[in-house]
Design goal:
Helix content: 25-40%
Distance between the termini: 38 Å
CATH class: Alpha Beta
CATH architecture: Alpha-Beta Complex
Strand order of the largest sheet: 1-2-3-4-5
Order of helices and strands: HHEEEEEH
Radius of gyration: 14 Å
Largest sheet: 5 strands, antiparallel
Number of strands: 5
Structural class: alpha+beta
Length: 122
């Protein structure tokens, strides 16, 4: 097991179930590389694509690090006042619309492969 899996397995109930689902989807279907960064599971290709964030309200947030650059054609992504990150919150596994999520993940991967991520310091 790795640090990402250890982190996920420390949760219970719906949070654990949702994170296990996304971990499997992101690593097996989309071939993203899991890394434990900033005390959260991040998923990479060339650079960071997304991460899983368990909220204090018991939700799981699938957050796209370059979410503001995505089209959000599905209308699922919310920025919540953040400058770069956009995300989708889930309370239960049945809340997940795999089609819309897959489109957002595909778009984030294409962005990562074609437009290099650059960090601009202020």
């Amino acid at each position: 097991m790795n640090k990402v899996e250890d982190f996920i397995l420390n949760f219970e109930g719906d949070q654990k179930e949702i994170m296990l689902f996304f971990h499997s989807l992101l690593t097996e279907e989309f071939n993203l590389i899991p890394k434990f960064q900033y005390n959260l599971p991040f998923y990479y290709r060339k650079s960071w694509i997304c991460y899983l964030f368990p909220t204090k309200k018991g939700l799981i947030e699938l957050a796209f690090t370059r979410g503001k650059e995505l089209s959000n054609a599905q209308g699922l992504l919310k920025s919540r006042g953040r400058k770069m990150v956009s995300s989708i919150e889930f309370q239960e596994l049945k809340d997940i619309s795999i089609e819309g999520i897959s489109e957002a993940i595909h778009e984030a991967i294409i962005l990562d492969e074609n437009v290099p991520y650059t960090f601009k310091k202020k």
